[in-house]
Design a protein that fits this description.
The protein is α/β, with parallel strands linked by helices. About 35% of the residues lie in helices and about 20% in strands. The protein has 2 domains: about 1-135, Leucine Aminopeptidase, subunit E, domain 1 (3-Layer(aba) Sandwich); about 175-495, Zn peptidases (Aminopeptidase). The chain has 15 helices and 20 strands. Helix 4 (about 120-135) packs parallel to helix 5 (about 165-190) and helix 10 (about 350-365) runs parallel beside helix 14.
């Protein structure tokens, strides 16, 4: 799909549809809507008066052969109440429009922003929304596959005096949108088509193409580094583990600059191990490498956007299987840091592999950490599938990250790390246990477990278990993987 800036008057652009948006309770049409209404002999005003065009969030009204426009159709998308509207909402508006018109065979679209949203930030948001909406999860279907496609989208009506900045914003939106598609495609892969070794091969191909440095640690190197927590999870599978290390180094690194370490959980399939999961919905556990895929997507984007700081991604990858050699509840493993862990539940495996990933990232020189993982079902109990659970220390570091989340339009909610939760992961036989001893608070005790391995390094943990996948498609997003947290992490790295 081509996305380009078009400086022609919007009314003269030939297209299958022109898209713009209307606010709730917008009884008096103004700006571009008033212009379109006058050209259409008051047709829009009559829709407003009749209640058909109300502007409620993501409500759609399609007008065929609108007067005064070269476009064959006019799509009006509800933008909700003006007081609640943010530039980030343009992602959903653009994405909803694309999926609606794509299903109706449109190929060429024009997107027209309202008067207050014609700068670079708005252009980037629109591009990201369009690319996210264009992803389909039906990769392996041979029949009834969605073959309809949007070929091009023109962005019209943006401030012409911002040409260079607009072009840069559109390019940044494209880079981030394509990186998110890359991550979502990985998350969507069946586990027989994306084993740990296959994931490493895909990461290696991406790194070569993007100009990044990559190291793949095999099972022998993992053993040499004494990554006992990762080895414990991997030992039940016939598939050997891998640790993927991707590095971005700026051309002129500043002495003393922070080094951002990104750690992503990549369980390419999770049966739960000996603490086996119920059969219902277990097929979805191919998505348990969503954190690792997200970090690979982030690195792909950063290679093009070139932040001023070095970034290292560490992605431990393995399956969690109930084989004859699998670790058992009650086993004690020694993590890379030397800390001993009592394994209470083998289905709490993600925190084990992240323990060694966080330790290794610090050993490689990371001064600041962000990890992302489909870690706990408990986060869905706490936040449903609306917010990512965000943990971190010190609080100032977490707050900076949450600023990036708001800028990227991704909902995240700060979660507690009170000292009382630390008591719940203390073991009588080892240093710590891999699940909490009390009832409830599972997402918090999991985060506390990870904090033990981040130690005193500034650290953010993102529990994306409830938000990495949607079982039902949304108006602006296909069902399946979401690529959540990628935009926030990219924004955070660029601002660091």
């Amino acid at each position: 799909m081509q996305i380009q800036l078009d400086t022609q008057p919007y009314a003269s652009i030939q297209a299958d549809a022109l898209v713009t948006y209307v606010f709730d309770q917008e009884n008096k049409l103004d700006g571009v809507l008033a212009e379109i209404d006058r050209a259409a002999d008051g047709h829009l005003a009559s829709l407003v008066a009749g209640g058909e065009l109300s502007g409620k969030p993501l409500e759609l009204v399609l007008v065929h052969f609108p007067g005064g426009l070269a476009a064959q159709r006019l799509l009006l998308v509800g933008a909700g109440k003006p007081a609640k509207f943010a530039t980030s909402d343009l992602r959903k508006i653009a994405g909803t429009a694309l999926r609606y018109l794509k299903s109706r065979g449109a190929k060429k679209l024009v997107f027209l922003p309202r008067e207050g949203e014609r700068g670079p930030e708005a252009a980037q948001a629109v591009v990201e929304g369009l690319l996210a909406a264009d992803f389909e999860s039906d990769k392996y279907r041979t029949e009834e596959k969605n073959s309809k496609e949007i070929q091009s989208v023109s962005l019209a009506g943006f401030h012409s005096g911002l040409g260079t900045n607009l072009a840069a914003a559109i390019e940044q939106g494209r880079v981030i949108g394509e990186a998110q598609t890359f991550a979502r495609d990985l998350i969507n892969e069946p586990s027989n088509r994306l084993t740990p070794r296959m994931l490493a091969e895909r990461a290696e191909a991406m790194a070569r193409e993007a100009g990044l440095t990559i190291d793949i640690l095999d099972e022998r190197k993992i053993a040499e580094l004494k990554m006992g927590a990762l080895i414990g999870v991997a030992q039940g599978s016939a598939e050997p583990p891998r640790v993927i290390v991707v590095r971005y180094t700026p051309e002129n690194p500043r002495p003393g600059a922070p080094v951002l370490g990104l750690v992503g959980k990549a369980i390419t399939f999770d049966t739960g191990g000996i603490s086996i999961k119920p059969a219902a919905n277990m097929e979805k556990m191919k998505y348990d490498m969503g954190g690792g895929a997200t970090m690979l997507g982030v690195m792909r984007a950063l290679a093009a956007l070139k932040p001023a700081i070095p970034v290292i991604a560490v992605i431990p990858a393995t399956e969690n299987m109930p084989g004859g050699k699998a670790q058992k509840p009650g086993d004690v493993v020694v993590a890379m840091s030397g800390k001993t862990i009592e394994v209470i539940n083998t289905d709490a495996e993600g925190r084990l592999i992240l323990a060694d990933g966080l330790c290794y990232a610090r050993r490689l020189g990371a001064t600041h950490l962000v990890d992302a993982a489909t870690l706990t079902g408990a986060i869905e109990v706490a936040l449903a599938n609306v917010n990512v659970g965000a943990f971190g220390t010190p609080r100032e570091y977490l707050d900076k990250f949450l600023e990036s989340a708001r800028a990227a339009g991704e909902k995240m909610w700060p979660m507690p790390l009170d000292d009382e939760y630390e008591e719940m992961i203390k073991s009588t036989i080892a240093d710590i246990r891999n699940t909490g001893s009390g009832k409830g608070g599972g997402a918090v005790t999991a985060a506390w477990f990870l904090k033990e391995f981040a130690e005193d390094t500034p650290w953010v943990h993102l529990d994306i278990a409830a938000t990495c996948w949607v079982d039902e498609g949304r108006l602006w997003l296909a069902k399946g993987p979401t690529g959540v947290a990628l935009r926030s992490i990219v924004d955070f790295a660029l601002k660091m």
